[in-house]
From TrEMBL:
It comes from Populus deltoides (Eastern poplar). The active site is at residue 424. Residues 278-439 form the Acyl-CoA oxidase C-alpha1 domain. It holds the Pfam family ACOX. Belongs to the acyl-CoA oxidase family. Keywords: FAD, Fatty acid metabolism, Flavoprotein, Lipid metabolism, Oxidoreductase, Peroxisome. This is Acyl-coenzyme A oxidase.
Length: 664
């Protein structure tokens, strides 16, 4: 870092060991060192610079992305980077591209749903990028309802092939990333038909383009679906449309871990549950939760640094004006978002552990925690992406007018991030899945089935329905057991109330449809409880570094008590707390904001983001905002000439016209 540090006075106030916090944020010293090295490698390579990409037209933008992806691959090979290092490098290139789908979905789908032979054949090709894959599930007519997909895969026993076909316009594959212009192959989801019988939706490896000249295979129609929300942003991605006219593929290109089709066209089920066909989605949802904290931390880092630089009002005797970060209203909007970034980081870590555990159990034919893994990944994906998208927009507002400039980095971040609320499962549809899981768990309580894992608290439902919150002073809200009990009681009471209402319906499906909005609220309460409880678990770990645990405690209680404030209706209406206790929680929240305030800049420094990755004039590490904002404005193409193009055609004649009218 060269030059003056305009935020030095802020950094001098820090009460904890920032380097130790960087390691907590990264997850381990190894993860910190590796990500730090990759971030610097990308930031120092001119081929990866991002300036001006929002001003590029679609074709230039897309070609620029192809160039960066090719350069990244070249560097990965030259430097012999490991898979982990390569993943970090791609992350810091910071531009959505076909490689996200290749590595993030195509490869995992083959790993999760392919047989050993299929993996041996296809994975080496994919690892060397001799083929490029995408994940073609969604169609024009159906996305959420996977069982409603219309593409067919009909087995032809004469030739030992599947015939992949798009029977209707609505069966056109629509949305898959990387499909429009790049992918040579895709995992295509289609209805399996053998001997005239349907066997549900399955995945098939289908070649789409020639490996010689990139032309579509005859019978395949393929292209890009068009511009998406925001300038630049997700338009670096070629989301595609694809139709099949009786395309033939060998039988061994159906992913057959769940179900095998024999030479005669007979379907043989393996011992793994049918839901494993959805396994790639579980994997990706888990990675989306981890990514939510990264995106949220970016927005919060920008808004926090800028809030310390920006001054408005409050000058006395010609002194300095007030830093906007010192306004209590700014703190009450900003610090819960800072706390959420840390909360999502830790729940993401835990979810990764859960996913690894499930994968190991599946390999040992233990499928018992698959429903919980599905509910957790679906629910936390929904909770964290909704909160992050909302938070990015809130950070834009926290930066006032300058937040609306592309130079703030926030409009692009929002545009890139917001589809996370839709892709990989619409967030409401996913919460309804959680609700089904919760209602099933509650309905089984009577039969003596003991809930485990994240629903274990429902096993104590009788206690939780009766318990009274033990808070008499604001300090009592700093007891983990008190906070946990309040969240558990709220969630348990909401679940039980919903289950009782459901039981009034003769047909449970009718009841579920009628009460779905209420059910979604119970799912949110349950997921918030998971986040709070995993944050509290984190505090119990031995966390080295002066003052680090203290800061994390403050953030944990800010996260929990802010939720309590925001969802006060739930807590009061279910009788978990009294209005007086709610008021004490607010007092505690204000006190926590004051304690976080001197550490705010250091807490965002701990994210260890380079200026390159942040891509924000407002969020610069050195806080030198105004001269750089001024400099940035002059880079706009409109400022290439003093008198704009179009002056002679449109402005000048208008002015002359007015002059003539004035003379009349
Ligand atoms: C400033 C610039 C910044 C730049 C930054 C750049 C950085 C890069 C940024 C971003 C790049 C990221 C790249 C991301 C790429 C996006 C990828 C997106 C890909 C996709 O979207 S793929 C398509 C995903 N589609 C979906 O998710 C569809 C959603 N629908 C479903 O999941 C299901 O169909 C359903 C669950 C809704 C179906 O419900 P239903 O029909 O009722 O269920 P059934 O199929 O009958 O099953 C019932 C039974 O199964 C259980 N179950 C359902 N799903 C699963 C599962 N996944 N796992 C396990 N079990 C499952 C369900 O609970 C039922 O169980 P039960 O019978 O009740 O016990
Ligand atoms: C940027 C982007 C990238 C994508 N990439 C891919 C990809 O690589 N591969 C791929 O296969 N797909 C991809 N998709 C598609 C994505 O997975 C789907 O759009 C997503 O699953 C939502 O499905 P849908 O579009 O059918 O929404 P719909 O289901 O049509 O949702 C419309 C509305 O209906 C509501 N709704 C739907 N069902 C219910 C219900 N049962 N109860 C209550 N409300 C309901 C939803 O909440 C929503 O408000 C991508 C999408 C986007 C935006």
């Amino acid at each position: 870092m060269k030059g003056v540090d305009h935020l030095a006075h802020e950094r001098n106030k820090t009460e904890f060991d920032v380097d130790a916090m960087k390691i907590v944020w990264a997850g381990s010293r190894h993860a910190f060192e590796l990500s730090d090295r990759m971030a610097r490698l990308v930031a120092s390579d001119p081929a990866f610079q991002k300036d001006g990409r929002i001003r590029l037209g679609r074709k230039e933008l897309f070609k620029n992305t192809l160039r960066k992806a090719a350069h990244a691959w070249k560097r990965i090979l030259e430097l012999h980077l490991t898979e982990e290092e390569a993943g970090w490098l791609r992350n810091f290139v910071d531009e959505p591209s076909f490689t996200d789908l290749h590595w993030g979905m195509f490869v995992p789908a083959i790993k999760g749903q392919g047989t050993d032979e299929q993996q041996q054949k296809w994975l080496p090709l994919a690892y060397k990028m001799q083929i490029i894959g995408s994940y073609a599930q969604t169609e024009l007519g159906h996305g959420s309802n996977v069982q409603g997909l219309e593409t067919t895969a009909t087995f032809d026993p004469e030739t030992d092939e599947f015939v992949i076909h798009s029977p209707t316009l609505t069966s056109s594959k629509w949305w898959p990333g990387g499909l429009g212009k790049v992918s040579t192959h895709a995992i295509v989801y289609a209805r399996l038909i053998t001997n005239g019988q349907e066997h549900g939706v399955h995945g098939f490896i289908v070649q789409l383009r020639s490996l010689d000249d990139h032309m579509p295979i005859p019978g395949i129609t393929i292209g890009d679906i068009g511009m998406k929300f925001g300038n630049g942003a997700y338009n670096t991605m070629d989301n595609g449309v694809l139709t099949f006219d009786h395309i033939r593929i060998p039988r061994n290109q159906m992913l057959m871990r769940v179900l095998q089709v024999t030479r005669e066209g007979k379907c043989v089920k393996s011992n793994v549950p049918r839901q494993l066909i959805y396994g790639t989605m579980v994997f990706v949802r888990q990675t989306i939760v981890a990514d939510a904290s990264t995106a949220l931390a970016r927005a919060v880092c920008i808004a926090t640094r800028y809030s310390a630089v920006r001054r408005q009002f409050g000058s006395q005797d010609g002194g300095m004006e007030t830093q906007v970060i010192d306004y209590k209203t700014q703190q009450s909007r900003l610090f819960p978002l800072l706390a959420s970034a840390y909360a999502f980081r830790f729940v993401g870590e835990w979810l990764k552990w859960l996913y690894t555990d499930v994968t190991q159990r599946l390999q040992a034919n233990d499928f018992s925690i698959l429903p919980e893994a599905h509910a957790c990944t679906a629910g936390l994906k929904s909770l964290t992406t909704t909160a992050t998208a909302d938070a990015i927009e809130e950070c834009r507002k926290l930066c006032g007018g300058h937040g609306y400039l592309c130079a703030s980095g926030l409009p692009e971040l929002f545009a890139v991030y917001v589809p996370a609320c839709t892709y990989e499962g619409d967030n409401v549809v996913l919460l309804l899945q959680v609700a089904r899981f919760l209602m099933k768990t509650v309905s089984q309580l009577g039969s003596g089935k003991k809930p485990v894992g994240t629903t274990a608290y429902l096993g104590r439902v009788q206690d939780l329905l009766q318990c009274c919150c033990d808070v008499q002073t604001a300090e009592d809200w700093l007891k983990p057991s008190v906070v946990l009990e309040a969240f558990e009681a709220r969630s348990a009471r909401m679940c039980v109330a919903r289950a009782q209402n459901l039981s009034k319906f003769e047909n449970p499906e009718d009841g579920f449809a009628e009460l779905s909005a209420d059910l979604v609220e119970a799912s949110v309460a349950h997921c918030q409880l998971i986040v709070v409880s995993k944050f509290i678990d984190k505090l119990q770990q031995d966390i080295p570094g002066k003052g680090v645990n203290r800061q994390l405690q403050n953030l944990c209680y800010i996260y929990a008590l802010n939720l309590l404030h925001k969802y006060l209706g739930d807590f009061l209406s279910t009788g978990c707390i009294t209005p007086k206790q709610a008021s004490l929680a607010n007092d505690q929240l204000r006190s926590l904001y004051s304690q976080i305030r001197p550490n705010a800049i250091a807490l965002v420094d701990a994210f260890n983001y380079t200026d390159h990755y942040l891509g924000s004039v407002l969020g610069r590490y050195d806080g030198n905002v105004y001269p750089k904002l001024y400099e940035e404005a002059w880079k706009d193409p409109l400022n290439d000439s003093v008198v704009p193009d179009g002056y002679h055609e449109y402005i000048h004649p208008m002015l002359k016209q007015q002059l003539r009218n004035a003379r009349l």
